[in-house]
Structure formats: structure tokens, C-alpha cells
Amino acid sequence: MILINLLPHREVARKRRREAFQATMFASFLVGLLIAGLIYWWFQMMIEQQQARNGFLQSEIKVLESQIKEIAGIEEEIASLRARQKAVEDLQADRNLPVHLLSELVKQVPEGVYLKSLKQDGAKVNVTGYAQSNARVSALMRNLEASPWLENPQLIEVKSVVLNGRRSNEFAMNFMLTRTQPPVGEGKK
Fold it and tell me: What is the DSSP code string of 23-43?
């Protein structure tokens, strides 16, 4: 007996190919979706790791900023302490200046000169007094110039006055007080 297939064989093959194509497409879609999900998950993990690193760096930056502020405060404190130290050293150095000033004035004022007032403003000293003559004022200026503790005497004015029934010269002068080291043996006792 001869069997004849009345169904069109081409349509059955086409249907099988279409079903295979659809199954392949669906499987490809699922594999693509799976790959896209894995890539998305991978990138999310990378983003979370970077955010964790960024958070760690931000916390460390805050710690360092607080340390920098502390260091700046310490540097200001050091500068303040150095300024205090300098002031104390200056006071220590200037402590004996009035003694040297008066000692030098006693040594350098010639006979016939009488001091009326003495005013010190820092290193500048203003002196007013009476002298028997202009020559005595000149001798005082020369003596002050020769002193190791006193320098740069400047005569401001000399005027003639009558004092206790005698004619005298009233003078005003300025000079500078210097910081010199005392001779060896004088400062250490």
C-alpha cells in the first residue's frame, strides 16, 4: 500500500523551524537578561565598594582636618610663647639699664652741671638741668658720647636763667641708652 501524506510537508518544516527559532529567541532573551542582570549586579557591587572607600576617605579627611586645626592652634600657641619669651628676654636685658643709666650719669656729669629732671622713654632719655656755662654743657655732651652705655647726645636748647641770684644756663638734651655687655667681672659676682 502506498501511503500519501496529504499534509504539506513544507508547512510542517516551516512550523518546526519557527518553533525552534522562537525557542532559540526566548533562550537568547533569557541568557541576555541573565547577562544584563549579572553586569548590573557587578556594577552595583563596584559602586557600593567605591562609595564605601569614599566614605572611609571622607572620615579620614575629617580626622586630618581636625588634626590640622589642632596643629594650627599649637603653632599659634608656640608663636605666642615665643613672643612672651622674647618679651621676658627683653625685660631681662633691660632690667639693669636704669642702673647703668644712673651710674653712667654720675660718672659723666662734670662739675658745675646739675640735673633737674630725667625722663626715659624706651631707649630714649630726655634730660634737663642747669650748668654754670656753655662749656660745661659741651663737656657733658662729649662725656655722654664717650660712654659705652650712652650714645648720640642731642642738645635741644640752652637758655640763660637766673638761679639763686646767679646767672646759669638751663639746658635740655636727648640721648640714647644702648644695650652693651658689661665688662668681664663686672656683671658676674
Answer: HHHHHHHHHHHHHHHHHHHHH
